Recover the amino acids of this structure.
């Protein structure tokens, strides 16, 4: 669709502008960048001296930190984009895109690019803190698997963030809606660690959604017992499937908003 075409040179400038706007908005920067790092420090500290007997005695942080890394990516992409686009729709920005010199595709690409940069920044800082403060270094052998998983996870959750914006009634409820969708799933998907006593059906529910698969793919790559490339093909396959769902519904949402101009 012509309305969603974009120019690479303009997109670079738009990403830069979106980054400046993001870091100037303290509430967005806190919830998308600082809050996941706070949770990392809290939960990794709580589990720092523990070992997982059911996983061969590996440090508990080698399991918890990858889950919190997944949470950081989700906050930087899904929550960030969903809230941002809900605000853009409510203030009429999306509706007026057709009447401005800036192509709608450049506008959306700028938002996605900015969210991806935030996700990359959260990931790098998380890995540095994990190594320096908690002694959980990035396994050299599985580093490519970690990078690949983070890239696929970022794309998946960015697409889902755009798609779910259609379900948010107004900008004021954006935070509540995204947290209602994400937070319950994090507790049954191994993001915060394992909770004993969860019924089996909850594990089956978690496996239907991409949180479980992003967290698990990273946990496999971080596991000291992992041999080979460390790529969890099955988990990445589910993430790619959800990426397709996000792209399909995200494009539908954007095209519907642009037609209202």
């Amino acid at each position: 669709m012509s309305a969603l075409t974009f120019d690479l040179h303009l997109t670079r400038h738009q990403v830069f502008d979106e980054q400046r706007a993001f870091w100037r908005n303290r509430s967005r920067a806190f919830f998308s960048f600082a809050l996941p790092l706070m949770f990392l420090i809290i939960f990794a500290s709580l589990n720092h001296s523990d070992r997982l007997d059911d996983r061969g005695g590996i440090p508990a942080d080698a399991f918890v930190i990858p889950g919190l890394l997944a949470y950081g990516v989700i906050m930087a992409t899904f929550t960030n984009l969903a809230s941002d686009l809900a605000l853009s729709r409510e203030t009429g920005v999306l509706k007026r895109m057709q009447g401005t010199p800036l192509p709608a595709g450049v506008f959306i690409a700028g938002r996605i690019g900015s969210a991806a940069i935030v996700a990359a920044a959260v990931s790098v800082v998380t890995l540095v803190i994990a190594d320096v403060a908690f002694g959980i270094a990035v396994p050299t052998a599985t580093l490519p698997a970690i990078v690949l998983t983070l890239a696929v996870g970022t794309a998946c959750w960015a697409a889902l963030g755009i798609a779910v914006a259609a379900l948010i009634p107004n900008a004021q409820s954006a935070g509540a809606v995204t947290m209602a969708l994400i937070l319950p799933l994090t507790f049954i998907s191994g993001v915060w660690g394992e909770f004993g006593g969860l019924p089996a059906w909850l594990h089956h529910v978690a496996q239907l959604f991409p949180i479980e698969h992003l967290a698990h793919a990273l946990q496999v790559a971080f596991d000291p017992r992992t041999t080979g490339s460390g790529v969890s093909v099955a988990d990445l396959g589910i993430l790619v499937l959800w990426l397709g769902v996000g792209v399909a519904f995200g494009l539908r949402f954007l095209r519907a908003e642009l037609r209202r101009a």
Observations:
- The two ends are 15 Å apart (CA to CA).
- The chain is about 70% helix and 0% strand.
- The CA atoms of residues 49 and 79 lie 32 Å apart.
